[in-house]
């Protein structure tokens, strides 16, 4: 009976059937009781699934009806579409060469679906491959340059300093401004390391412990300013269930790690409206790592809290970056020091890109952050 | 009327559950899939099923706020159908001859992953709902699918008042949730 009452309350809350007073009371309870919070999140997920189910069921009914109707009206005949032999032979000839190559490589039967598709849409994949290999060339070159540097400087962390904390961060302005979590910066000094292993001096410009965001600036003559930032910052809320991915440095070996998942709740822990709850398959342990959607939009910053359920993490919403920069600009003490220009999403439907290409483009803008005393 | 509806209008209609849009999509593109499936070891019924799934994938894509279609509807539907049909041929072990491809297609892997995830969730919900038994199944369907009020449901199901019906609804809902999440969490 108690359970039923609780479920009823949660459903009333989620469907907006509560009075303001009830709502306020319930939100206080939710904030102070993690179990209730978890139940709210779970039920909101369930209702979403239920809604999806209903929508699809109704739509399927509509398509079936439409099909039957058109079929009865004689739109198509069931046996009229005899295989067009002539065309098949022609196509077979056309692809005979690639087929023969495939067969000689490893037996045609074994060629996987994806490989087949590659053969049949050569222009698209050729292009992607080209772009990828180009990137590899660039990386090779950079690594050679890096090789020289490494001989000269060992580490930019002062010799007698001790590392106290670390995490990930990302560039938001070509001039060298980096966003990370405030809790990543427990020390007084910081360095950042890019995806090629190059260490760069950075100064901590601003840290807001409340929203857990901080602004760093790379101040190093070795820093090569990029021409532009390859992603935009999303101002609006993201959709529940939206596919997301992250790039960060959760490991000690400074290898960039990719993880993908989806947005599981539009509010974070204990109903915190400044963050999202996310479900992410890879290690979410990289605080300060950016969260992207497939439209090249930054939608959040991973901010790992203690006491996490496996696979569940939280991310600060991207509009908090905009807030942070606004308060940095208002701070008189920082006058002129933080002239950050944000690249905010203007067009609602940015062009969707291939994930591999997207990752390759983004990699150079993600940094490992180390803080020392 | 068909020709007047351009692609954008069609997609908009589809998003709004307009049966005219669904009809136009069937009229314009089903024969293409029919040809493709029949030429590749399939039957008319296979073509119907595969096209229906592609129609669902397109519909669910259009529904999401972040919707963007970077190619023609025809190309999109064909690409989805091609992947789904290839997969099915593999599953039934009928896949042997080189696949006959007559149309241009694009890479739809990310969309298919999303579609399959939705598909799995749909199947789990469907199974859970059906294994609930009566009157739970009809009661929940009445509330969540047919959007009936508690008063009306009480009358339909012979409960003395709306409160009793509501209690029963929540009891059923708890069972459904349990059934759903047991499956859903294993699946993920």
H and E order of chain B: HHHHHHHH
Q: Which CATH architecture of the largest domain in chain A is right?
A: Beta Barrel
Structural class of chain A: alpha+beta
Proportion of residues in helical segments of chain B:
over 70%
Overall CATH class of the largest domain in chain A: Mainly Beta
| Beta-strand percent range of chain A | 15-25%
**Number of contiguous helices of chain A:** 8
The CATH class of the largest domain in chain B turns out to be Mainly Alpha
How many H/I helices of chain B? 8
How far from one another are the termini of chain A?
A: 56 Å
Number of strands of chain A: 13
Could you describe the largest sheet of chain B, including whether it forms a barrel? Answer: none
Examine the secondary-structure arrangement and name the CATH architecture of the largest domain in chain B.
Answer: Orthogonal Bundle
The total tally of domains of chain A equals: 3
Structural class of chain B: mainly alpha
Shape of chain A: globular
* Uncertain stretches of 5 or more adjacent residues of chain B: none
Task: Enumerate the strands of the largest sheet of chain A in spatial order, edge to edge or round the barrel.
Answer: 1-2-5-4-3-13
Question: Average pLDDT value of chain B?
Answer: 84
């Amino acid at each position: 009976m108690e359970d039923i009452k609780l479920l009823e309350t949660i459903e009333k809350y989620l469907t907006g059937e509560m009075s303001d007073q009830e709502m306020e009371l319930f939100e206080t309870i939710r904030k102070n009781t993690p179990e209730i919070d978890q139940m709210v999140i779970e039920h909101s997920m369930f209702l979403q699934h239920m809604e999806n189910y209903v929508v699809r069921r109704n739509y399927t009914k509509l398509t079936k009806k439409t099909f039957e109707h058109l079929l009865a009206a004689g739109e198509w005949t069931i046996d009229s579409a005899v295989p067009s032999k002539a065309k098949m032979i022609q196509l077979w000839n056309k692809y005979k060469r690639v087929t023969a190559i495939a067969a000689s490589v490893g037996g045609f039967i074994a060629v996987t679906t994806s490989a087949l598709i590659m053969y049949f849409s050569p222009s698209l994949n050729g292009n992607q491959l080209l772009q990828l290999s180009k990137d590899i060339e660039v990386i090779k070159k950079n690594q050679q340059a890096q090789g020289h540097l490494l001989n000269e400087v060992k580490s930019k962390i002062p010799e007698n300093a001790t590392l106290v904390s670390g995490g990930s961060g990302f560039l938001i302005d070509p001039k060298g401004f980096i966003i990370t979590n405030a809790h990543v910066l427990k020390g007084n000094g910081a360095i950042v390391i890019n995806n090629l292993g190059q260490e760069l001096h950075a100064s901590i410009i601003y840290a807001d412990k409340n929203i857990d965001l901080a602004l760093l600036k790379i101040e190093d003559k070795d820093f090569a300013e990029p021409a532009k930032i390859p992603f935009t910052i999303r101002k609006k809320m993201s959709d529940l269930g939206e596919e997301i991915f992250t790039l960060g440095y959760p490991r000690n070996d400074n290898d960039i790690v990719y993880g993908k998942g989806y947005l599981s709740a539009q509010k974070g822990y204990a109903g915190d409206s400044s963050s999202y709850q996310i479900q992410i398959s890879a290690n979410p342990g990289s605080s300060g790592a950016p969260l992207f959607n497939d439209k090249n939009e930054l939608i959040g910053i991973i901010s790992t809290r203690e006491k996490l359920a496996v696979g569940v993490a939280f991310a600060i919403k991207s509009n908090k970056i905009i807030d942070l920069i606004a308060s940095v600009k208002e701070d008189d003490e920082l006058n002129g020091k933080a002239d950050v220009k944000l690249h905010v999403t203007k067009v609602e439907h940015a062009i969707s890109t291939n994930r591999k290409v997207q990752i390759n483009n983004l990699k150079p803008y993600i940094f490992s952050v180390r803080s020392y005393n | 009327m068909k020709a007047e509806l351009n692609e954008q209008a069609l997609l908009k209609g589809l998003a709004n559950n307009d049966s005219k849009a669904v009809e136009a999509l069937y009229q314009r593109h089903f024969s293409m899939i029919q040809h493709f499936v029949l030429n590749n070891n399939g039957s008319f019924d296979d073509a119907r099923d595969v096209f229906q799934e592609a129609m669902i994938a397109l519909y669910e894509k259009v529904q999401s706020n972040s919707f963007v279609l970077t190619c023609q509807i025809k190309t999109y539907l064909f690409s989805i159908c091609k992947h789904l049909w290839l997969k099915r041929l593999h599953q039934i072990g009928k896949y042997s001859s080189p696949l006959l491809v007559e149309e241009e297609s694009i890479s739809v892997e990310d969309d298919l992953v999303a579609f399959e995830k939705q598909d799995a969730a749909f199947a789990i919900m469907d199974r859970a709902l059906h294994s609930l038994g009566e009157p739970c199944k009809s009661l929940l369907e009445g509330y969540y699918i047919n959007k009936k009020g508690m008063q009306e449901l009480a009358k339909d199901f012979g409960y003395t008042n709306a409160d009793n019906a509501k209690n029963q609804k929540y009891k059923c809902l708890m069972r459904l949730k349990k059934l759903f999440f047991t499956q859903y969490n294993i699946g993920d």
